[in-house]
Amino acid sequence: ASVGDGGLDDSGGPDETFTVVVLPDTQYYSDHYPQIYEDQTKWIVDNAKKEKIQFVTHLGDIVDNGPNLRQWKNARKAMDALDKAGIPYGTCIGNHDLQYSDTEYSYPSTVDSSCSNFTDFDCSAKDYLDNFGPKRFTGKTWYGGASPSGQSNYQTFSVGSQAFLFLHLAVDPRAAELKWAQTVLNKHPKAAVHLSTHRYMYDFRLVSTLPFPLNGLLGGRFDAMLHAMGQTLYYKDSIPGENLFQQFIQPNKNIVMVHCGHVDAELRQVSKNKAGLPVHEILVDFQELSPKGGDGWM
């Protein structure tokens, strides 16, 4: 497989096919069903050779409550299985990873939430960084690095002659994160880029209760209208999914796929970038699929 002028060519033959595993919102597993989370990563390890698994991308909301140390411990234990097996992976920050209202733990009142449109938000992302920040990946050759805030990151690997780059952006990306991300892409012009971020698309169920004609929307990227109608952006300088596509994804012709979670739904669409090449955009989140927070689907 090769990128060529920005499009992904699958002509490399069956010996160069491979699998990427997507882990959508695990928040309820980390809180109530840690065994399911562990079963997910165990399946990945047990099937890595058979399925030619090259990478695992987590779409954010790793935990349900940002300051809850018990939940982070559960999540860390599940993901440790990938480290022990040497399977590369990356994680996104979801809103629940930063929101600090919780019945078991609470941050001190000095926590700075000035970056956010919400008062219960940890701008420093302390607990995420303590558990899944750059220090966790020290010595991993596939770990490319993190943004200055540590809240976005990227990983690289190759299959045959094709280089791949997995970019993980924090929820509702901020201007500084995108500026950093552009420098990463500029340094890897021949890599096929997969972008993971927590909130980017929705399906019809999100808007089905809105008044006519808005309740007829079938789904797509979040835009300013939806955010104004109650889907508030998490950061004061965030941009909606539609703007993320127009300002960052569409101009970068080597971004071939986008994955997101956040909304309990499934949606797939194919858009065109400015080079006329396809961008595969996929929303997947099973957290309400059964009383067990997704029942292990991935």
Strand order of the largest sheet: 4-5-6-7-10-12-11
Mean pLDDT: 92
Low-confidence segments: 1-7
Largest sheet: 7 strands, mixed
Termini, distance in Å?
25 Å
Radius of gyration: 18 Å
- Listing every helix as H and every strand as E from the N terminus to the C terminus, the arrangement reads EHHEHEHEEEHEEHEHHEEE
Q: What is the percentage of strand-forming residues?
A: 15-25%
Helix content: 25-40%
Characterise this structure.
The chain is an alpha/beta fold. It has helices at 27-31, 34-51, 69-85, 126-132, 175-187, 204-207, 224-228, 241-249; strands at 19-23, 53-58, 89-91, 143-146, 153-159, 162-169, 192-197, 201-203, 219-221, 255-260, 266-272, 278-284. The strands form three sheets. It has a seven-stranded mixed β-sheet, covered by helices on one side. A three-stranded parallel β-sheet has the order 1-2-3. A two-stranded antiparallel sheet has the order 8-9. β11 (266-272) and β12 (278-284) form a beta hairpin. α2 (34-51) runs parallel beside α3 (69-85). The longest helix is centred in the first third of the chain and has 18 residues, at 34-51.
